[in-house]
């Protein structure tokens, strides 16, 4: 019996291959031939953006682009001139491969010393030594695939084992203390010092301030500032991991649940990031993230979020295999069904278990087969929080900068500004200034206006200056 729900054994040889000589379609395979499982590999990224993984925070990586716009070429499974089941030419990708550019916030970061070259491929890069379109080596029938075959996506910068670096930020720590000491507060200094730090730098600065001044930087900021300026500065000083945990905790605390904040933090994250968030959340709030989510959600939405935080999404190194994509699309259409036969859990299992490249492939194949966008079908079949989360998952997979630009606009659109969401979303994107630039470009392309000007029109005073500093 397979460990993977919904699995139907194929009736031919290995996936993506022609039948062995002498073996017709539908005949049993040779005795030692193995079937692949249908489900995702056990084990698996990024939150709205991702830190660059190599050569220092703002150095360009060799390849891979977390969230860069990457419209797949229509009506093809292979790159131009590529035969089915053959590896692509050097320096090329298949239709659902990643664009060869820089990663954004939330993409994998290396687990080696700060600033050293990465040991792992960048977010969304092709599987090592895996020809495009070729099926993976198969495990025995009904068993889980070996994890060593597909390297796990590293945690984002600030989420892995290394949280600080051996760098001297004492002078900046002293400048922060002088800005808050005595009568009045120099908010300009606070903004200038804090708004451009990467996750490792901000964690290091916070630790050195606390040690050197024998004070608590977060407590001092809370005492010396107020309003949304305070919210923004403190969110920055927490760093991305603690900031995510705090956002989740506040989203579930008290009456009602702030579903948009849950989606912002958890939808589309790597397994490594999800596991880091769960461990840190338990340490900070003395209760498991799963327990708190179950207490605030219910029904299908609760089940969907249990799938998300189970951290069993396909790793970025897992390849796009056309036969698996075709099967997923068939299962998706079956799960969509109609009002009576719709299977929400089946749809959520498929979409939350795929990596971004697979989701792009699924969306394109669905459009080709049924002549309608997958997003439109999700809108027609789902509603409420589940609809919002599934649409965000697809949007982030297909164009992450645009998805975050849309989230920023949603926090400012309509009567009034959703200031807390705006602060959280700007800070989350700002951890990688390169990705923040991509979000600005996507915003201008989508709304034909400048993001900085839009924020200036919706905010004011020192709070405005902090957000503009983060965006610029």
TrEMBL record:
Pfam families: Annexin. Keywords: Annexin, Repeat. Residues 28-40, 50-63, 86-102, 133-154 have a biased composition (Pro residues). It comes from Trematosphaeria pertusa. GO terms for cellular component: cytoplasm; nucleus; plasma membrane; vesicle membrane. PROSITE patterns: ANNEXIN_2 (PS51897). Gene3D superfamilies: Annexin. Residues 1-22, 64-85, 121-132 have a biased composition (Low complexity). GO terms for molecular function: calcium ion binding; calcium-dependent phospholipid binding; phosphatidylserine binding. Residues 1-159 are annotated as: Disordered. The keyword Cell membrane does not apply. Belongs to the annexin family. This is Annexin.
């Amino acid at each position: 019996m397979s460990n993977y729900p919904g699995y139907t054994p194929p009736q031919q040889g290995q996936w993506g291959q022609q039948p062995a000589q002498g073996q017709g379609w539908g005949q049993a395979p040779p005795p030692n031939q193995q079937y692949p499982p249908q489900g995702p590999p056990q084990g698996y990224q990024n939150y709205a953006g991702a830190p660059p993984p190599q050569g220092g925070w703002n150095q360009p990586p060799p390849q891979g682009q977390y969230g860069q716009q990457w419209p797949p070429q229509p009506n093809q499974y292979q790159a131009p001139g590529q035969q089915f089941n053959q590896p692509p030419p050097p320096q090329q990708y298949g239709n659902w491969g990643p664009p060869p550019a820089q990663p954004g916030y939330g993409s994998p970061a290396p687990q080696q010393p700060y600033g050293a070259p990465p040991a792992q491929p960048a977010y969304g890069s092709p599987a090592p030594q895996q020809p495009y379109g070729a099926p993976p080596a198969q495990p025995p029938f009904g068993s889980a695939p070996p994890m060593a075959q597909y390297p796990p996506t590293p945690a984002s910068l600030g989420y892995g084992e290394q949280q600080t670096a051996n760098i001297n930020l004492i002078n900046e720590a002293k400048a922060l203390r002088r800005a808050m000491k005595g009568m009045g507060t120099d908010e300009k200094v606070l903004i200038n010092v804090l708004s451009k730090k990467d996750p490792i730098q901000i964690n290091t600065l916070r630790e050195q301030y606390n040690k050197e001044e024998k004070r608590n930087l977060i407590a001092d900021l809370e005492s010396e500032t107020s309003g949304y300026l305070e919210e923004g500065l403190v969110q920055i000083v927490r760093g991305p991991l603690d900031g995510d945990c705090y956002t989740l905790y506040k989203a579930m605390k008290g009456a009602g649940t702030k579903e948009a904040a849950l989606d912002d933090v958890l939808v589309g994250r790597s397994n490594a990031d999800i596991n880091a968030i769960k461990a840190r959340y338990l340490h900070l709030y003395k209760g498991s993230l799963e327990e708190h989510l179950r207490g605030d959600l219910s029904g299908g939405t609760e089940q969907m979020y249990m799938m998300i935080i189970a951290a069993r999404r396909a790793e970025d190194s897992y390849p796009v295999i056309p036969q698996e994509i075709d099967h997923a699309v068939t299962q998706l259409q079956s799960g969509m069904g109609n009002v009576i036969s719709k299977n929400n859990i089946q749809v959520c299992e498929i979409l939350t278990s795929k990596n971004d490249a697979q989701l792009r492939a699924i969306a394109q194949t669905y459009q080709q087969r049924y002549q309608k966008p997958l997003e439109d079908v999700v809108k027609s079949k789902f509603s409420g929080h589940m609809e919002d989360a599934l649409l965000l998952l697809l949007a982030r997979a297909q164009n992450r900068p645009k998805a975050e630009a849309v989230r920023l606009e949603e926090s400012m659109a309509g009567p009034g500004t959703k200031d807390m969401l705006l602060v959280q979303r700007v800070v989350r994107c700002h951890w990688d200034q390169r990705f923040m630039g991509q979000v600005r470009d996507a915003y201008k392309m989508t709304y034909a206006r400048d993001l900085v000007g839009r924020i200036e029109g919706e905010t004011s005073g020192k709070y405005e200056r902090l957000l503009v500093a983060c965006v610029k």
